[in-house]
């Protein structure tokens, strides 16, 4: 199926929507967030046959690998729902105790590779949402399976999560990706890809956000 190319205006709108959603999501109790996450896992289970068909037809992925990708995705989502966000009390003096808390970043951007588009997307998306952040997914523009997979995940999420928490933008160099990465409303970037591109990601995000890498050397 055809999909539109996102523009700078689409990116600005997505970031603003995510920032608005974040103000309430960050204060949602962790137990309630986990319920949303588990509902998302259940929806992906129901979507499994269609997703496997898409991976085998559009990506030419072998059926055992496609089955593994969906099973791993669901397992990671449910595993994320078992995580807790700890708070540590440190005794500063006889009169004072300091509490160490982990607070959410805000709006996170996730760049998904083409080889395992659903599995690697869920590996970043669900911990992000569980810890109180909002996320915008950016699949690679040259792989139909990755674009469709990302958009379909967003469609499933829209039926479960409140508006703005999980969005997906399909686009080419008209959108970025450098415009996406350097947007001042995005506070953290998750990237999986080559070392060469990873260096460009770090340079692009150095003044606006933090970056988490998973890079591989490509000869």
SSE blueprint and pairings:
Blueprint: H1 8-25, H2 30-58, H3 63-80, E1 88-91, E2 97-100, E3 107-111, H4 117-130, E4 134-138, H5 144-158, E5 166-168, H6 178-181, E6 188-194, H7 195-205, E7 210-216
Helix pairs in contact: 2-3, 2-5, 3-4
Can you put this structure into words, describing what you see?
This protein is α/β, with parallel strands linked by helices. The protein has one domain: Aldehyde Dehydrogenase, Chain A, domain 1. Helix content is 50%, strand content 16%. It contains seven helices and seven strands. The strands form two sheets. The chain has a five-stranded parallel beta sheet with strand order 5-4-3-6-7. The protein has a two-stranded antiparallel ribbon with strand order 1-2. Strand 6, helix 7 and strand 7 form a beta-alpha-beta unit. Helix 2 (30-58) packs antiparallel against helix 3 (63-80). It is globular. The mean pLDDT is 83. It catalyses: an aldehyde + NAD(+) + H2O = a carboxylate + NADH + 2 H(+). Belongs to the aldehyde dehydrogenase family.
């Amino acid at each position: 199926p055809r999909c539109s190319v996102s523009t700078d205006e689409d990116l600005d709108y997505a970031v603003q929507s995510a920032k608005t959603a974040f103000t309430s999501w960050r204060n949602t109790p962790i137990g309630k967030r986990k319920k949303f996450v588990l509902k998302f896992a259940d929806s992906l289970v129901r979507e499994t046959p269609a997703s496997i068909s898409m991976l085998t037809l559009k990506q030419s992925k072998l059926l055992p690998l496609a089955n593994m990708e969906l099973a791993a995705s669901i397992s990671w989502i449910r595993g994320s729902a078992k995580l807790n966000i700890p708070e540590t009390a440190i005794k500063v003096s006889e009169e004072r105790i300091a509490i160490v808390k982990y607070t959410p970043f805000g709006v996170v951007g996730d760049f998904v590779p083409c080889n395992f588009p659903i599995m690697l997307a869920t590996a970043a998306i669900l911990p992000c949402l569980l810890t109180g952040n909002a996320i915008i997914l950016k699949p690679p523009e040259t792989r139909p399976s990755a674009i469709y997979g990302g958009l379909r995940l967003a469609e499933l999420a829209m039926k479960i999560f409140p508006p703005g928490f999980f969005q997906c933008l399909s686009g080419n160099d008209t959108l970025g990706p450098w415009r996406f990465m350097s947007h001042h409303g995005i506070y953290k970037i998750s990237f999986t890809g080559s070392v060469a591109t990873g260096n460009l990601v770090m340079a692009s995000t150095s003044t606006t956000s933090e970056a988490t890498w998973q890079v591989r050397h490509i000869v």
